[in-house]
Specification:
CATH class: Alpha Beta
Order of helices and strands: EHHEHHEHHEHE
Strand content: 5-15%
CATH architecture: 3-Layer(aba) Sandwich
Shape: globular
Number of strands: 5
Radius of gyration: 14 Å
Distance between the termini: 25 Å
Structural class: alpha/beta
Largest sheet: 5 strands, parallel
Helix content: 40-55%
Number of domains: 1
């Protein structure tokens, strides 16, 4: 089995919308490693919704957003349901680290899987101290 790596929306967004985005080469290298089956990219099942929301506000038309989501689906990420227990852990982490529950859910998944979290969201994750590795792009 490939080593899991949790990715958040800030990374996934770069795969489908690169205009004006920083760290695109690093994000694409991560995706390439997944597609080559060297790693397994994992995220909460809410990830496509969060990416769609970001695309909605990026200036793309509705048909372009739908096209991007179809391409996104072909990446075959491992999307995991956010059940009550996971949301509870994320809520606790959100309060502890003064971040949103949305952001904390990615951290909760990384903790659960015992794997790194890769993010480009420096504002949310730069100052967090946790048992799992947080890789900032």
């Amino acid at each position: 089995m490939n080593a899991p790596v949790v990715v958040d929306t800030s990374v996934a967004f770069k795969w489908v919308f690169q205009d004006g985005e920083d760290s695109v080469p690093e994000a694409m290298a991560l995706l390439d490693a997944h597609l080559a089956r060297r790693i397994l990219l994992v995220a909460p099942a809410t990830l496509p919704v969060e990416v769609a929301n970001g695309l909605r506000y990026s200036g793309l038309s509705a048909p372009d957003v739908l096209d991007a989501l179809e391409a996104f689906e072909q990446l075959h990420l491992e999307l995991i349901d956010a059940d009550t227990s996971r949301i509870g852990r994320a809520t606790s982490l959100a309060y502890t680290n003064d971040i949103t529950v949305y952001d904390a859910l990615f951290l909760a998944f990384a903790e659960e899987l015992g794997c790194p979290l890769v993010t480009a969201d420096h504002r949310a994750f730069a100052d967090i101290t946790t048992a799992v590795e947080i890789r900032l792009l």
